[in-house]
Structures are given as C-alpha cells and as structure tokens.
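Please check this protein record:
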Amino acid sequence: MSTEALVSLAAPISDEAGPGLFLRIIVIASLVGIGLLVWIMARAFRGQ
C-alpha cells in the first residue's frame, strides 16, 4: 500500500493536513501491543 493510499484513508479521521492523528493512533497502538507482548512473555517464562 502506498503512502498516498494511507493518507487518503486517514483523511476522514484527521482535520490536519497529512496523516497526523492516524499516525499517532498507529504508534500508540503499536506501543501498547509491544507492552502487552512483553508482559505476556514475562508471565510465560516466570515459572521456568
């Protein structure tokens, strides 16, 4: 998927020019996902 397609998908979400809010949502969601993955792995390997 090209950058232009992502920007056009993000247009209804954001009033700003470019993918500002959309990009922030993606970054925050990925950080939360990484945190959950680390927490799950820490719990899984705690008993070993």
About this structure: The chain is about 70% helix and 0% strand. The chain has one domain: 3-45. The longest helix spans residues 20-45.
